[in-house]
Give the backbone structure.
Amino acid sequence: MLLALEIQGRENQDLVRAMSGLCMGAANSGGICGIFTGASCVMALYGAKGDDAEKEADKLPLMLAEISEWFGQNTCRLYGGSSCADIVGENRRRPDPDRCGRLLLDTWRRIQEILLENGFDPANPDLAL
């Protein structure tokens, strides 16, 4: 989320702080990787509606399906699964800087590709291409 906000030239410390609850699987559960759930939130930042006056982008379900499929295939190939336990190991209490860092950058690149492929400008979520 921080990368999405930065590319937009925006700041939202409360949102970034809240997103940290996804790290190490929601609430440090070791469950589904927070990079994936965070990526889903970024897709929604661009395509979901924020109030009754807005309309959800028709392409949002497709975008979410694309990031889900890509993330699952990528992490299964590299780590045997998409949970934090699969990616960093059962007994880890902190993210692995190498694995998590690489996965975060790869996921950010894929997010940008999906946004562009579906007519969204990553730098301006209000402007459809």
